[in-house]
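An instance as discussed:

___
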Amino acid sequence: MDQKKVFPTFIFESSWEVCNKVGGIYTVLSTRAKTLQEEMNDNLVFIGPDFWQGKENPLFVEDAKMCPKWVKEAKSEGLSVRTGRWNIHGQPRVILVDFVPFFENRDLIFGTFWADFKVDSLHGYGDYDEASMFSYAAGRVVESYYNFYLRNKKDSRVVYQAHEWMTGLGALHVRKHVPAIATIFTTHATSIGRSIAGNNKPLYEYLYAYNGNQMARELNMEAKHSIERETAHNVDCFTTVSDVTGLECEELLDRRCDAILMNGFESDFVPVGSAFSAARRKARKSLLTVANALTGATFGDDTLIVATSGRYEYKNKGIDVFIEAMNRLQASDKLNRPVLAFIEVPAWVAGPREDLQERLASGQQFDTPLSNPVITHHLNEQENDNVLNSLRYFGISNQPADRVKVIFVPCYLDGRDGIFNQAYYDLLIGNDLSVYASYYEPWGYTPLESIAFKVPCVTTSLSGFGMWADKVKGAASHLADGVEVIRRTDYNYYEVADAIVAAIEEYAGYDKKQVEKVREKAAHLSKKALWKNFIEYYHEAYKIALEKAEIRMITNK
């Protein structure tokens, strides 16, 4: 096939996180959308779940004039959809589908996928049914739209890319009912690999010895693992986001990935020039103001602001070792500056603290702490929270004499949290250093986002991003390179904590010229991960999928 024939004329892409900001995949899709939209010129449609009927979704701009004839046809087929634009850079077209009506026939749907693909749904629980009904609905949307608009188009090369196990059933539906469509399945982390790591079992040293099916039974992950495994084996192109997860897929899903789709970023999100400086000043002021109102301590300009963030996976994301490191840093005889450390991970938040809100509204400076001056919001079942329990265990309570103060921000920083009322990026820019000490991290958007905003970071060799940073350098990366990649294994927890302490001590000792040099190196590295550089990996996946689909159609004629 020539190059034109291995590039799609139309792309469908579905994810639980389309117009639904709940995790890292949202960042993957939303930052890539502009680059892909420019290539496809509106021949790109994202499909997401419609959670917002009767409510305003700030991420979705409905357009009833988009595809009205097809919407009517879809309704006659039992599909309730809304069309519009995703309110992000690039403004790509979006179809949101109401999947709730399919619950009525859930058992029949699951039975069909067992008969066709041996997907085991008997052991599903929690979010399994909801995600599966969305996935099935998304597959039906692709089938309907294709039949209405694309089936009879000359030289039509259509790709359907499905992200994570939550879209697996849809990919399998398309594979069976619309074989002309080339299918791609991308796992951003295997469900069983994440579960092994999260259950305190050594993942990496024994990876070669694990049997995915056996571990799924042991860890009660059979249904999700089954969807993921069977989808991986039945699509035209199976992909993941890093080499480290590629090994995981090969061992636990028994399928080698056809392509590695590393996660890029868009520089549009980062202010430039005087706007950057103003945004950084504003962010630092917000962080220091909240810290003063909470702890009663005074934070000068020399305060080193350090943060970790991401999904609340206490061990997998290295939150445990970050707290360990902060406790050890407290006793450091090399630390020459006060440190203010933030843990920004969404927990089961019950709302903002009213006493903290009152202090912030007053605009005053404070010299006395609030009660429990380590957390900005109320939590449900606070006594069971891992972060708070760990802070209590180490005796971290933000006393006036403490040189290292730790503040837990247990909410999504979406600009409406009630305390900061600023978005995550608007606060990230105010950090001096970020730490992402992950044990399990298929890629690692948080460190990439950090360096894009000129904030040097510490990460580990078990993250896809850390492996990439070392690969770009051609050797181990150190703080002077903008990224410190700490070697992490199944068993070196305390060595990792000591390495984090050493990195913070080193950075705290840099003079202004050294700091600026490291910040510039961090930003320079981030530019190597722009989507304009990483989109070629998607082109390769499209090529693989389209070639296989063409062979299938020729063979089946």
Summary: The two ends are 19 Å apart (CA to CA). The mean pLDDT is 96. The first helix runs from residue 24 to 40.
